[in-house]
Fold:
Amino acid sequence: MGMTYVQKLLAKACGRETVAVGDILELPVSLAMSHENAALVINQFKEIYRGTPLEANIWDPSRIAIIFDHRVPAESSKTATNHKRIREFVAKQGITKFHDVRGDVGGICHQILPENGYVRPGQVLVGTDSHTTTHGALGAFAFGIGATEMAAVWALGSILNIEVPGTIKIEVNGELPDSVYAKDLILYIVGLLSAEGANFKVIEFQGDVIRNMPTSGRLVLCNMAVEAGATAGVVPPDEETCRYLREEAGVEDKVREGETGNPSRSQPGLPGTGREGALGYELDLFSADADAVYDRVVEIDASQLDPQIACPHTVDNVMSIGGIKGKKINQIVVGSCTNGRLDDIEIVARTLKGKHVAEGTRMLVFPASWRIYTDAMEAGYLRDLISAGAVVCNPGCGPCLGIHQGALGDDEVALATTNRNFKGRMGNPGAEVYLCSPAVAAASALTGTITDPREVN
Amino acid sequence: MAKGTVVLKLENDISTDIIYPGRFMATVLPTETPRFAFADDKEFNQTLNDGNIPAGSFIVAGDNFGCGSSREQAASCIKGYEITVIARNFARIFLQNSINVGLQMIICPDIDAGEGDELEVRDNAVFNLTTGKSFVIESLPQARQAIIDAGGLIPYTRSLLMERTV
Structure:
């Protein structure tokens, strides 16, 4: 019986010929990522060693990534103290993949990992953040875990008791129409599957539309796979994956010759600092077996899609834009680990260039990393946005989850390119959050109401 | 597990933003998180903080309880009050976090109970003593149960580490 992409990945990771759905595995971890919640991981990590003769040292500091992104720069003395404790721990343990509050290396974790070449096809990648699913876009099996689970990973170098998940294959064919993007596609998919429709399963994205989609769009799809409850989202690696790794992430690894049938206990992505070049590791590109067995196959004709909106207060409350057009908006947020990349900012800047954000509407733009911020600055996008009335903030997660800047007032309405619209998400349970693509956000900024970008361009 | 009262009845898709709002995430220690449990439900949060919810009480929810963020505070803040959560099913990360930190949770696909109902958990079922109905509990996979039996992931990992170091 054939295996899905993730089944094959897991079999390789633990050195087995095959794995079946439901098998319980202990998986060696290739990369373990945390952000500010490393403060709790450190606490739990030390707890594990309490009362033992062992010294509390991380199994392999080169496989740990810590990125400050949730509250940057620190908004309170409490956060600043957490940052300080984490910095001390990072120095003591010799953690090299550390991204502090800095303009040269900083940004949101789910952009920092791919753009620095930390992510490779075939990796088992865990992060103390639910949107760790993002990294499936480069062919990793990447999923979110809690802080205590991460403490165990730091101690053991592996993650325990992982049940091999079943896979839902989403086959997207046709062509995305004008003004319809990866974000619209994933909102549509979450609406179709529901918020729990993929619980404990993997979503494997396939089809012509995915093959033709740049990695920036695949990152959007996998990022929000978790909004349907999926353990992980994944795009099996292909030529575009190699292009991204080489051209945008500075990865120089050779591609392994031929399909590798031999399982070997491997941990892709060897240690290093900064951008990881040729380190002797070969990119292992494989795909799902043709006779793989899926829990469910969903076929989508992309050419039928309109821009989509997720309405309050669940991400699966999705409708085509026609159903909610004209809704008055107080604040527009462009950014986050979902849609804060250069192509997102470009769409918004091109729409707003020489025009103005409507009176009575605020617009905040948070690029996903300082590299993107700098690129957007050099391309003139930031100037266009600022001239139009947008406020360009430093890269970070803050407003998406209502913890740092951009909070909403009572009864206010936000339209955001972020990933969640739960009650209270943007810091106020009395406010509403609608989710959309950057194109819809830009068109709506001009009118101050939810606007179909096809009616602006 | 013995008898207790349902102190909160919740719908489907209760997110971790409702259980533990993001703005309190800089507070991480299990000893400190209970203060902010359900902080946006001011009345319930106050009742919790006033010490008016006895240990062994129940929260009853629908499908997909704990969806959203991986924040472990959402599990530790409820654990602090020794409340048991019964839901039709749980979101993956929350389920694992609960097991890891020792929050009592019960998967009960047909649960039907309202606030104020008296429940009893025994013989792999939840008995609603108020309505006289009973509901079967879905047991956890063996690998997860082993962590609960060890008292949580910290002691479980500690003994594994000692075993492997020898």
Summary: The longest helix of chain B spans residues 153-165. The radius of gyration of chain B is 16 Å.
